[in-house]
Amino acid sequence: MDSKMEEKDFLACCGSKKFAEEMTSSGPFANLDHAIDVARDIWFNKVDVNGWLEAFAAHPQIGQNPSAKHPSDTSAQLSSLSLYLYISPCKSMFHGC
């Protein structure tokens, strides 16, 4: 990953300020796998319950148009990354749940 992302870029993906701050200070990342490993560590070991709730509250409600919260191409890419972060452990634990 060539360019360093800013806090606002990570906030577009995950509404947790702590997550965005930690990801910003941890980059730039050598590659996608490195970014995913760092993101997973931050999410599970540095973001507390309040940060998780902050992140979940930033997502659109079911049926709500997500474009208001995720207007850029970068945020769409980061949303894909967050989905991958969610699915990856599930796949390894349950062999493709």
Automatic annotation (TrEMBL):
<dbReference type="InterPro" id="IPR018020">
    <property type="entry name" value="OHCU_decarboxylase"/>
</dbReference>
<keyword id="KW-0210">Decarboxylase</keyword>
<keyword id="KW-0659">Purine metabolism</keyword>
<keyword id="KW-0456">Lyase</keyword>
<dbReference type="GO" id="GO:0019628">
    <property type="term" value="P:urate catabolic process"/>
</dbReference>
<protein>
    <recommendedName>
        <fullName>2-oxo-4-hydroxy-4-carboxy-5-ureidoimidazoline decarboxylase</fullName>
        <ecNumber>4.1.1.97</ecNumber>
    </recommendedName>
</protein>
<comment type="pathway">
    <text>Purine metabolism; urate degradation; (S)-allantoin from urate: step 3/3.</text>
</comment>
<feature type="domain" description="Oxo-4-hydroxy-4-carboxy-5-ureidoimidazoline decarboxylase">
    <location>
        <begin position="7"/>
        <end position="75"/>
    </location>
</feature>
<dbReference type="GO" id="GO:0051997">
    <property type="term" value="F:2-oxo-4-hydroxy-4-carboxy-5-ureidoimidazoline decarboxylase activity"/>
</dbReference>
<dbReference type="InterPro" id="IPR036778">
    <property type="entry name" value="OHCU_decarboxylase_sf"/>
</dbReference>
<dbReference type="GO" id="GO:0006144">
    <property type="term" value="P:purine nucleobase metabolic process"/>
</dbReference>
<dbReference type="Pfam" id="PF09349">
    <property type="entry name" value="OHCU_decarbox"/>
</dbReference>
<dbReference type="GO" id="GO:0005777">
    <property type="term" value="C:peroxisome"/>
</dbReference>
